Amino acid sequence: MSNTPHFLSGDPKSIFNLPALVAFLAVFIVHRIWTTVNKLRLVNHIPGPRPPFSPLGLPGVLIPTSWWNTSQDVHWVRRFSLYTNNETVSIVPFLIGKPLIWTSNLNVARQVASGIRTGFFKPTWSARALLLWGMNLFAAEGDVWRKHRRVMGPAFNNELYRLVWSQTLKTYHDLVTSEQWEEKGTVIVPVIQEITFKLALLIIGSCAFGFSFQWDEPPRTSNGSLSVQEAIRTVADTYMLRVFAPKWVLKLPFKKIQHSNAAYEAMALFMKEQVIARQSEIQDNTRKDAFSLLVKANEQEDSKHKLSDDELIGNVYIMLFAGHETTAHTLAATLGFLALNQDVQDEILEQIKEVVGYNRDPEFEDYHKLNKVLAAFFEALRLFPSGHLMIREASEDTVLQIPNPRGQEGTTPFIIPKGQVVVVDMVGVQYNPRYYDDPTSYKPSRWHGISNDSEDFTAFSVGPRACIGRKFATTEAVCFLSMLLRDWKVMPKLNAGESEGQWRNRVLDANLVLTLGVRDVPLIFVPRK
């Protein structure tokens, strides 16, 4: 009797026929090689990683860490090695996914930035997570984007920024009083994001929506079951579940899924109510919050340019999410870097004392004089750019002029076929030694003398679609940091036996969900007087 396993025998009745299996594998490998060769041809054989899956599609986006150059955080994990030889590389998956061109070069970024004269557009699939409630300024493209920008633009003006400044002052004082910082003396904050996220949401609530809340009474959803911050955080943390999972999965009785459903439903109801409330108050000229101005501007548009209720709701979410998520992350990173750089902190303190002193609070008119405070925020955003990828697709066959590697003059033309995706890696841009001396170091002095609107600072994105809320965020940040740093010295909260270098490696690393932020930052605040 033969001892050969049944599935390895040549018997055609066996479960696995070995010759057939070998033939199948041979055909599969040849097909994969042929497909990969064609993919390489599409990207002009530009060198780069060759992972099994695309980092922008399934299953790559579900892989939690940079396994074989696959996960969506590959550009962060390999930020020091991905562009060693070339600033523009290709990522060509050999199993699943289309070939991608990734670049850390600003010249290429400006060529593909969406605009009337470019042959590139922002594909809808790249913003699926932000289309859960409707089309919005962030996800729109072409004429639709221009329609949204036309309605949204008037809401962002100096009157709004003045309101942001005054509300940030109020919220800072409310924080210190409610948390009893002065009574405590030295204050230990295990996770500074618990403060920065709450601060940013309260500022958005008051300035963007006209809410009146205290530090110890944050805004809540309509049924009171969740704070707005909790709902936003839950929706952001589970966005891939809602974007990629089939509908039947969302009906499963698992706690995480049910919590996500509750947060989603609460946010949907909250935003719908905000639209209805503003539409009913359209004649109230005393309301100066951004959303009221947006709704009013929309009501004044003709039918061709008017946004639907779903589009208004989509923009409510963008204002809530982007307006508080990115600012909160960057404030946390700024304070983390300043805690490790006491010389920079001292330099900023001297400017605050010179401009403001101790006998008054900073005023909106002081904003442009506090350029070193702004520079500290800019530099933290450079090292942790919230909008870490800019994804564009060729709308027609076109040519990109790709600069030669650093140290070589000139450019090389590359034919880009219609449908090819080009990804601008904003992490790669911000760590590119072509643009920044010693790019891994925290040096706010790079931005001394740089105005808020300068195109030299690119971490808010580039081109006509650069962040509409840039001045909103920087106004809030400069005001809050000026008050905080004048009154308190910031220090890292070290674990037992931990050095500052070890603290930096543990804490100042990426936390990537929808946006790129920093891990939980533990800090100590010591009163200056």
Strand order of the largest sheet: 1-2-8-5-3
SS-derived structural category: alpha+beta
Oligomeric composition of the shown chains: single chain
Report the biggest beta sheet as strand number plus sense, adding barrel if it closes: 5 strands, mixed
On the 0-100 scale, what is the average pLDDT?
86
Percent strand equals 5-15%
Shape verdict: globular
| Cα-atom radius of gyration | 26 Å
Instruction: Give the distance, in angstroms, between the N- and C-terminal Cα atoms.
Output: 92 Å
Q: What is the helix tally?
A: 17
Counted beta strands: 12
- Helical content band: 40-55%
Query: What is the H/E order?
Result: HHEEHEHHHEHHHHHHHHEEEEHHEHEEE
Low-confidence stretches: none
What attributes does this structure have?
529 residues, alpha+beta, three-stranded antiparallel beta sheet, 17 helices, 44% helix, globular, metal-binding, Cyt_P450_sf, Cyt_P450_CS
Give an account of the 3D structure.
- With 529 residues, the chain is of the alpha+beta class.
- It has helices at residues 18-42, 74-77, 106-112, 142-152, 158-178, 181-184, 193-209, 228-237, 239-244, 255-280, 290-299, 309-340, 342-355, 371-383, 426-430, 470-487, 500-507, and strands at 88-91, 100-103, 120-121, 187-189, 389-394, 398-403, 411-416, 421-425, 488-492, 510-512, 516-518, 523-527.
- The protein has a 5-stranded mixed beta sheet. It has a 3-stranded antiparallel beta sheet with strand order 4-12-9. A two-stranded antiparallel sheet has the order 6-7.
- β6 (398-403) and β7 (411-416) form a beta hairpin.
- The radius of gyration is 26 Å and the shape is globular.
- The mean pLDDT is 86.
